[in-house]
Amino acid sequence: MIRDINRKKVTKNAWRLTSSRNKTCLRIRVPGGHLDARHLDLMKHIAQQFGNGTVHLTTRQGFEIPGIDFNAMAQINELISEYIKETEQKIGVQIPTPREGYPSAGTRNISACIGNRVCPFANYDTTSMALEIEKTVYPNDFHVKLALTGCPNDCIKAHMQDIGIIGQALPELESQACIGCEACVKNCRKKVTNALTVVDHKVERDNRRCIGCGECVLVCPTQAWSRNPVKYFRLVIMGRTGKKNPRLAAPFAEWLTQDEVIAILKNLYPYIDRHIDRSLVKEHVGYIADRTGYKELRNWLLKGIKLNPRARIAKTMQWSGYEYGYDTDRWDCSQTIAESTGE
Amino acid sequence: MNRLLKNKECNSLLGGLSADYRFFAPVRRAGRGRLSDTDLITYDQISSVEEIVWDEKTLRSAKEIMFPITETLMRFDQKTISQPSVVDNRGIVIFCRSCDIHAVSRLDKIFLDNGTSPDPYYERLREKIHFVLMECADPFKSCFCVSMKTNIPEKFIAAVREVDGGLKVLSQRRTLVDKLSTIGSECEFELHYPKQNGTEVFPPQTLDMPSELYDHEMWDEYSGRCIACGRCNTSCPTCSCFSVHDVMYDKDSGQAGERRRVWAGCHIDGFTDMAGGMEFRKSSGARMRFKTFHKIYDYRKRFGENMCVGCGRCDDICPEYISFSNCINKVSEQPGTQGESL
What angle do the packed helices B284-293 and B324-332 form, to 10 degrees? Predict the structure, then answer.
């Protein structure tokens, strides 16, 4: 039984309040969603020795181990220090005292689709880049959700993040090797944006339509299409779920290099620091952006960055989404009114 | 003569010969593979032996050197027709394995011996070509050269084995022997050939394929599996089909243009399209049957040996995991395929 805990300190330490007053739940980060299988022994051990024997796989690809006594926090922080060293310190995350557990929990686990370690569609190694991002943004405590996906299929749902990172390939054509078979043309028409046509028995691309998915490279029988070895990224920003105004993230930039993506992510934090409403427990960055307007956000994100000539930035921003609330025109209320008045 | 040459010595030999020869070999194009963060292994011009890739099979074969993927046959305007000359008149030396040398002999039959006269475009490149055999003692997993009798090399001017920091070179060519005798050092070099492959294939032996096999249900399965992408055709070192296209330089005036030939393949849509919309082989299964019989039957009937050289590239590349080597064996299991051998 515990009576007096510093709630703010505890939650910042990656322990959460739960539905049971006397129990807490440990959050474990898995940057990039990929883990050496030997670490699973630790999850199992903590769950069985201290928790209720179960482990929850979170939507952000971390673990939550529920049913733990608050009293055990210090002991478990000690237990996971090796794991923190292996998965955070080792990749360059600044955590001075891993024996005290996670130093912050606001910036959520960096999620990633499985990437090109497994998936043929992926345009880069999402896990490796997730680790780069982890050491850039963690242990910041501002509430930020980031995820990486290998291609525009967006299996990780980058469109539901504050910033979603989508891999782009820049396909280049070795024209003499094109046999005009139209495999890429048909595929692009059916599955993507119809960016390709055949002119004089050779393929041509409409660069305004190409989204850099890399499908043409995958289907070309002669490898006339191949990727420029530079990896490019599209950023979609300020997507969210939540109780106020759920919406998909919208395109902010495309054809960015990895260095530019990292620099932009770094710039996000001073923007939040400058504009956050500190009267709230935590304010999602998307709502800050709603208050400041897109231009202010854009200026902060791009501060001090010299973009490569291919990069494109959205001039304006119109997020989709909808408002909850008093939108009575939306609903047919006759039935529910009848029920509630007992008629 | 057997000589051991350090890489530096090889490279100065290549450099010394570069006024008269271009050298081609399997090379690595970093980051240019089909999947991201993979490399494309393909034939290309080299200037040093360190560029040669020994431990991976090329995606495309060496055939594009003498049978370019796109080749301009003639240029025309309203008054004249001209045949483009070969831009580079130097000889061509190709570093390749036994199967790929055998494959070129198959192309020779098709382009030089099959019609009433040799194909002049092929012939003028082919005459320039010499082969340096890359010893292939330990073949790749999908290879079946032993079954196709292409494991023993023929017609090469020199053979090379990769050793640490250099090459062992074996040659009987007078001109080469003279050059080699002044560089490197003497060494032991007995050429090894593959004696066994991971894949074993039993090609049919019959002079006349049983007619039931043309409509056999085994082809129906391929109709459901093959996606007609054509990768088996384009990666095959013996596929020699092409289409001819006329391209106008100025579409409005239509007064000048060129005629090209471009690789084509029996698995690719449009290959058998005729005027009026007729298409001979609609189903993928029919295309598979056509290719299979061409590689291991029709060609043999005409030229006395199988067209397929067992390089296994089609098995490596098929996105639907269709195995041509297994298809050959399926054919050979059918009654009437093991008749009198040629």
Answer: 80
